[in-house]
């Protein structure tokens, strides 16, 4: 994998030129995809967290681009609100945490639940077979409504 990535960086026509003057600053290392949505606060005194920093990746799919971008939109609206009211305190920014929970809470806690379920392989397969049609029916309108 490392060799493959190194080769792309050195030779791929769409990538190599971007690294022409770059030098490696450390060893290669893996990094986990953060899905710790329910664990920490997403805002505090004069700050808000978005995307991976807020643990918004989907635990089951390991996708975080869509939720990350959506959290940027929610964050921007909150900033406009803060500027409009000239308030940046912990208490005022709490509405950001609430908005994130409203937007992603159900989706992300469900994906975390499904991830846990996959650890019991036979039970997961059994339930997936039984519930497939039911989920497909419920998921479609959800997918059409959301952009992530
Ligand atoms: C191998 C892999 C595959 C993935 N595949 C998918 C996928 O198919 N679909 C999907 O939806 N998600 C995927 N993800 C997850 C997705 O990449 C992340 O959830 C998403 O990129 C998070 O966006 P972000 O803006 O929060 O963070 P990032 O994209 O990590 O952006 C953070 C940026 O901040 C910069 N930065 C860090 N520290 C500092 C600093 N001190 N000063 C200035 N800049 C700083 C970083 O260089 C980086 O550019 C994948 C992740 C990995 C690792």
Radius of gyration: 20 Å
Secondary structure class reads mainly alpha
Q: Secondary-structure element order, as H and E? A: HEEHHH
Distinct ligands: flavin-adenine dinucleotide
Q: Distance N terminus to C terminus? A: 28 Å
Shape summary: flat
Mean of residue pLDDT values:
90
Ranges where pLDDT stays below 50 over 5 or more residues in a row are: none
Count of helical regions: 4
Task: Characterise this structure.
The chain has one domain (32-145). Helices cover 57% and strands 3% of the residues. It contains four helices and two strands. A two-stranded antiparallel sheet has the order 1-2. Bound molecules: flavin-adenine dinucleotide.
Write a brief structural summary.
The protein is an all-alpha fold and 148 residues long. Helix content is 57%, strand content 3%.
């Amino acid at each position: 994998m490392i060799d493959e990535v190194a080769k792309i960086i050195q030779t791929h026509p769409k990538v190599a030129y971007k690294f022409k003057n770059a030098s490696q600053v450390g060893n290669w290392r893996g990094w986990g995809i953060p899905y710790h949505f329910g664990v920490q606060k997403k805002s505090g005194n004069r700050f808000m967290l978005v995307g991976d920093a807020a643990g918004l990746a989907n635990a089951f799919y390991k996708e975080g681009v869509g939720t990350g971008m959506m959290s940027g939109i929610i964050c921007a609206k909150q900033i406009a609100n803060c500027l409009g009211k000239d308030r940046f305190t912990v208490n005022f920014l709490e509405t950001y945490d609430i908005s994130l929970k409203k937007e992603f809470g159900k989706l992300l806690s469900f994906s975390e639940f499904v991830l846990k379920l996959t650890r019991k392989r036979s039970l997961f397969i059994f339930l997936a077979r039984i519930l497939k049609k039911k989920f497909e029916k419920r998921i479609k309108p959800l997918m059409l409504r959301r952009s992530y």
